[in-house]
Amino acid sequence: MQSQDVAQRHAPDSGPVDVEQAEAALVEHYPRLVRLAYLVLPPGLGRSRRVLTAHALVQRALPRGRKQAPAIPAQSTGREADPGYAYLRERVLRTALETARPRKGPRLAQLPPLLPQVWGLRLFPRSGGADELALDQRLSALSGPARAAYVLRDLEKLPDGSVRRLLENAGVSDAGGALASANSVPAQPGLLASAEFDPCSLQARPTDLVRRRQHTKAALAAAAALAVCGALVALPGGGWGPDGAAAPVYAENPAAQAALDPGRLGRVSPAAWRTSARTDFSVWPARGPLTGDSALLRRALAVWARPGEQVRVSATPGTQTGGPAGPPQLLYAGEVDAARVVILYDGLRITRYAEPKDGTQGAALDFARIDGAAGGGASALVLGRSDGNVRYLIAPWVTKAAQRDLAKPDSAATPLTLADGVTAPLASSAMRPGTCTSWTALQLTDASGTRLATDLGELVPAHLTAGRPGSPREASDAQGLRTWAPFACSLAAERSAGVSSVNAWTYAEQPLPDSSGTGAWVCTRAETWRGAGTLTLAQFGTPGGVAGTAVAKAADVPACGPRDPQVLAGVLWKSAAGRWYLLAAGGADTASIRATGGVTASGQGPLLAVRAKQGARADLQATLTDGRKIGGLR
What we know:
The protein has 634 residues and is α+β, with helices and mostly antiparallel strands. The protein is built from 13 helices and 31 strands. The strands form 8 sheets. Strands 12, 13, 17, 18, 19, 20, 21, 22, 23 and 24 form a 10-stranded mixed sheet that branches. Strands 5-9-8-7-6 form a 5-stranded mixed sheet, with helices on one face. It has a 4-stranded antiparallel sheet with strand order 28-27-30-31, with no helix packed on it. A hairpin with a 2-residue loop joins strand 10 and strand 11. Helix 2 runs antiparallel to helix 3 (47-59) and helix 6 (144-154) packs across helix 8. The protein is elongated, with a radius of gyration of 33 Å.
């Protein structure tokens, strides 16, 4: 083992590390430190001896005695906020490199390690796939310092400057050369974290089958597993740690490991939806030409579990971005425009993984919360966006797809071609810059009817409805289209807000002063997947107007919703004759309206129209037929 004075010679002057800190770091990060030692140790030792040696090196990494240990520089990853972990890592790295370093002169007889000791068994990590085997062979051809450089960069995610300093502190004379040699092995994110290189998740085999009975072998295997993965150097100050009986942070979890196996992905029969009572994502089959590409699926699952620095991660509000709790369901794998795309579903979220087809580095990981999605909310998913267009993957029960301009209710819908459930590209109004003059909606038809959805910049398009809150209808009929037409561009206010559906309700129509025709009062309400974050707009449209005007807005209020459909709003309006009026309207249950402030007036019924001065401001209050009072939406 490295002596204390040598360790101090390589330590900086940033101050000591408390021994208690080092002990806590050892308990918390024990599996990761053992993995690091196992990967750096020379492959010539054999897998079984490397396992035991790695455990021995980590268990001896604590400083002797109760005095403080020298500190080392903090690096740039999350664990490095803990100086105890950084200190232990350097100690483990140094001793592993010393074991790997060729010795000159006669070799002295080595004493057996104190811990752990295993007799009659060979212990080795579980076998991985072809990718893991190829990587192990490439690492075996490297020198010890080069292997250490590769591991520090790929497993610990350290930049080259930090790797160089750590190698120099560990006694490597040519750290630059080690980095250069490590560059000869291509980076393969996630492979070093697989079970192939995990010396704490072991298989046991007897060394001699002839001399042992079956029950003896079983007893030895159980004891060896406990000794290797449970035996730590005795730590002072017993009792539970801050995490109680939980396993170390880096400990493997069987369910989490299964979630990373592409062979365990859920795949639903293409005919399952025909016999199921459910109309949600759980009955979507796996589609796309790359559903059999295990390498692509493995990358998608690994990036979901451990997104690296080159992964762009986005999520709708209120959506968790952690890895799946178990094997998710595969919905799609294929090429979309310039990317390879994988769509996965874990019961609560839709996850979209995309990587460039040309093999350049970088990837995108998008999350959307969709718990409770069914029917219109589970009819389509966004596969990709390119050049202002969007492609959808539609539900298997959808028989026709089309696009229509929501701002032109009398125009016919344009059919979209479908290929294995994927639509031809159509314009995404939510992503279009500049003034809004039209709004593209996706029209889907199935056995139950026709419905509309629209892209709001997320993975799941928002379902559009029309009618009184609590009992809305599909917005695809003639009345729904006329309701939405003047207010289609107001959907831009709901972009990237985790919106599941938007309803438009014409709650009042008002004869306008000076024989100016009839105005329409519409409230639109956007509901979200998470429940909170609803947005209610009160909008006013005049005859012949190109687009309606939002006159009031409120977030997280019950107004215009299924719990309380009542709404009251007003606007200062100028007639064709040049006169200004305060117009106000409530729903059919409004008994009277009163205005105070810059305009003082009152009237019976759900409508109010009084002369006002330009720029006047008024406060509104209404009394409902049941005696309840409500204020104006603001």
